Amino acid sequence: MIRSNVMSVFALAACLNMSAALAAQTSITVGMQLEPPNLDPTGGAAAAIDEVVYANIFEGLTRYQADGSVVPALAREWTISDDGLVYTFALHDGVTFHDGSSMDANDVKFSLDRARAEDSTNAQKRLFTGISMVEAVDPLTVRITLSNPDGSFITSLAWGDAVIVAPETIDTATTAPVGTGPFTFSRWVQGDRVELARNPSYWGTPVALERATFKFISDPTAAFAAMMAGDIDAFPGYPAPETLPQFEADPRFRVIVGSTEGETILSTNNKSDKLSDIRIRKALAHAIDRQAIIDGAMFGYGTPIGTHFAPHHPDYVDLTGQSAYDPQKARDLLKEAGVENLSLSLKLPPPSYARRGGEIIAAQLREVGIETEIANLEWAQWLEQVFRGKDFDLTIVSHTEPMDIGIYANPDYYFQYDSAEFQATIAELKLASDPSDRSRLLQAAQQRIADDFVNGYLFQLARTGVANARIQGLWENAPTQANDLTGVSWTD
């Protein structure tokens, strides 16, 4: 009798432990290498912002899916006028913000008017410059009038920069974001993690996860240790690709390798006195051995590029041969430009592709007679000095926004390229709706910036991730900068 009772106690304890273990699988801890500087995707340029909030906390009228397609989100449908100028959006009924207030057409108008305002701090303000008027026709209908037809307007509305926010909470969005998404913001322990909770009042399909934590681990060695110890459940942008074979050999894990929209470039300040001569920029391009950078910094993961465009896009033009590795040609160009003892600043943000790649590029440039002064910056410093202050000669960064070749049409963008011909091509592209015309113009744009050697084009960033083998629903590819957890769950 006593023995039976003891066994019953053990059996009960085992059942309770099993139930607790199963219950625990409604939460996830996701690793990220970079901590976002703030949590407002409509007012900051850092990709890490969207990696936390896109589709999780904030939603737009449209959104990206894992396969790169753009589908309705807060807008359930829309119509476009015959002249391509007027878009009328029908909003979902019953949508509320996380504070309980209703999301309606006035919030859409506020969000888009704020994004396109003269004093807007939106990092992609150019997406909204074609809007001439936003009208709240009624609470569930929004009419947007464009100044000219824009064949990519629906796609532009899917960017994280175009999410819908409320005027009542926008002032605190940087530290306490309030959106309409399936997760609510719980807290941000700065320097460590951001915690989210399932939104019990979500208007759409409820998510499987009850809690999600984004844990920030900048050091690749620490990231490896955290994954191995089980402190991290998934690391979609895993920063130590050299250790992936160890995960592949371990049945506890699944290695996920896909593509991103991240053109990794040696960004060049085109208005620097040292770099305004195209022969010098051309010399830089020929001094770079792309494959050596991919092998040395990315351990073989990455696709060489010769222009600012994703190789997986059907309109991509392979222009790598135009800036092929040729150290002697680089030396000849420098001599032709009358340059000796050239020394350039190389300011590097925290990602490992930049820090590791910067050391390799510095050695390659030294081989042709160019010295570099490397400065390793934290993300906030990089944004202030390089992106906003334009105080640099060279930097390395991956541009992860989708279809972003249009940034070269902005002469005030941080690499300060100013080409009337390129600007005219992009202006024509915005008006084009015929697929063949758009393809021709996109290819012409790629060729133009390659011909002008605006930047040193390195490689398309691969998406190398590691996850617990029981997790399903993580994105393989990254059509936009996001860690979308809306379809993520645990298997038994």
Structure report:
With 492 residues, this protein is of the alpha+beta class. It folds into three domains: 120 residues, Periplasmic binding protein-like II (D-Maltodextrin-Binding Protein, domain 2); 113 residues, Dipeptide-binding Protein, domain 1 (Alpha-Beta Complex); 200 residues, Dipeptide-binding Protein, domain 3 (Roll), CATH 3.10.105.10. Helix content is 29%, strand content 23%. It is built from 13 helices and 19 strands. Strands 11, 12, 13, 14, 15, 16 and 17 form a seven-stranded mixed β-sheet that branches. A hairpin with a 3-residue loop joins strand 8 and strand 9. The longest helix has 23 residues. It starts with a helix and ends with a strand. The N terminus is likely disordered.
Main traits of this protein?
19 strands; 4-stranded mixed sheet; alpha+beta; Dipeptide-binding Protein, domain 1; 13 helices; Dipeptide-binding Protein, domain 3; D-Maltodextrin-Binding Protein, domain 2; disordered N terminus; 492 residues
**Can you tell me the CATH class of the largest domain?**
Alpha Beta
Strand content: 15-25%
Shape: globular
Domain count: 3
Biggest sheet, in brief? Answer: 7 strands, mixed
CATH superfamily of the largest domain: Dipeptide-binding Protein, Domain 3
| Protein structure class | alpha+beta
What is the architecture of the largest domain at the second tier of CATH?
A: Roll
**How helix-rich are the residues, as a percent range?**
25-40%
The poorly predicted ranges are: 1-22
The CATH topology label of the largest domain is Dipeptide-binding Protein, domain 3
Gyration radius, rounded: 24 Å
> What's the helix count?
13
The counted number of beta strands is: 19
Alpha-carbon distance between the two ends: 35 Å
Mean pLDDT: 93
